[in-house]
Amino acid sequence: MKYTAIIIWLTLWVCHNASYGQEQKADTALVLQEAVVTGNRTLVNRNNVPMNITVVGRNEIENSSESALLPVLSERVPGLFVSERGITGFGVASGAAGGISIRGIGGSPNTQMLVLIDGHPQFMGLMGHPLPDAYVASDVERVEVVRGPASILYGTNAMGGVINIITRKQNREGFSLNARAMGGSYNTQKYMANIGGRKGRVDAYASVNHDRTDGDRENSKFHITNGFANAGLRLSEHFRFRADISVAGYVAENPGMITKPMFDNTVDVLRGMTSASLENEFRHLNGALAFFYNWGDHNINDGYTTGGKPLDYRYRSRDNAYGLLFYQIVRPWQGNMVTLGFDYKSYGGKAWNRFLNHAPDKIMVDTSSYDLGGYAIMQQNLFKDRLTLNAGGRLEHNKSYGNKWIPQIGLAIRPTENFVIKSSFSKGFRNPTIREMFMWAPANPNLKPEEMTNYEVVLEHYLFKRSLYLEVSGFIADGKNLIQTQIINNKPMNVNTGSFKNKGIEVAMQADLSGKFSLSGNYSWLYMKIPVLNAPERQLYVNANFHTPKWQVNIGYQYINGLYLVTGKNARQEDYGLLNAKVSYKLFPAMTIFAKGENLTREKYQILDGYPMPGAIFFGGLHLSINR
Predict the structure, then answer these.
(1) Alpha-helical segments (H) within 481-628
(2) Closest to 568 measured CA to CA, from 603, 533, 597, 522
(3) What is the mean pLDDT of the chain?
(4) pTM (global) more than 0.90
(5) Cα gap 307→284, rounded to integer Å
């Protein structure tokens, strides 16, 4: 109750100050990203989409000075949590770092949350999980997070939600250059540079990032280099072509639990992705035909503990995922919109143990699977746009289990221009991965998809001439057929046996209190009938931003309550609060210097059991920005 009281007090305080601010400057208006693409594959007003979508914009990402994207989202999106185990970098081996959950749904490994880049799915072809280290903040224009199932549009893995990373493009005529260099605790260094240009019908953008650190513990070094480029060409009034490519190479060390140190436990990963799309836009019709291809090469040394011996083999894998996406949005009459889509996705790869003594490789799996899906969604505005109805369905065919039907219905009511009530019923699913069906002892090729049903109500209200935005959401999520490992006939086997029932409340606010000071925050409460890791029972985040033409001060506080480090009979939870701050000063119109500190109160805490997080850490750097 005390946390609820804090939220209520904070909201009242903000309302009072926002009202005072209106007397001082009546034309102040809160700038919000109201148009989204993730909920319907085309740019529509967020209030017309039944899905609950949070938008994290470019300014919020820039203010963090983070090179990795996911930690920013973990603060800014209600109910979303990302597990970390050190000063920077996630890695992909043991320790579950980089796990993403929303509303207690994520899976282990993380296969119940789908990450998209410009609408194209991103996951490891064999294991099915996203690759957190490959998502770089400097390449991002904004992020749209669907809090709840989105399988009707995106198919498998969108069971719990979707993170759609929308990349930067050179939208203005001319030239832009940005560069940043920063360094800090534990010999951490981060470098970034990007360049963009647009002339006439052609635009292009490219960036490179490099991060490295010695880590806060012995054997926890990390370094990564990312490169990204995209280009667009307007072919005619109605057609344009876009293509992009991204490559990330990184090496991460896992030091193991503090009570059970690991040695030589390293991952050496090379990931790449590319896509191309042909987009069409007419008066009553728009859409795209797109192709994407993702690939990875993983070289893992599982290491050894004290008293053990170095391994004589390395785990190797090469995976890929590719597909074809086609959709068209038709507007046959006033207030009506129909989305029709088709997609084909193939994913798989090869995994083996490569022995150092030149013995023959031990191949674990060399296979692939595919999904084929089609969907239709209709949206109709009624009563002078006071009411919006949405309904649709998806039919999915999978190589292993056959067909599956996914429905969704929802509505949005606007009693006034500044007040919206949204309600929805939706289903989500995720297919069994190749790892679960064919790799290691528990493998079971007869697995069925995991399923989830979600009921949700959302209230959104703009106050004080839209200088204050409030959102309150309530949800109930039921899951079944979860894939878990059980002992059957004295042998471990993956079976569809698990279930969950989660419910919760989420609150978000954003306020422009004056032309120089803004405040934002969110709070979430989660009840899990069956507790899971990486899912706090309560989350609170408050951010204050003050800026003048020369100075900018950004202060954020995140409080985590009821985070399970261990579940089951010996369940153990963690509570902690983190205070972060950043100060920037513009030396010249094109150059800014900054300093930032994280965990300024030196909180002792863990996110993963046995992996203590670092105390106070500090960074300093400079940022160069040129636009012509």
Answers:
(1) none
(2) 533
(3) 90
(4) yes
(5) 70
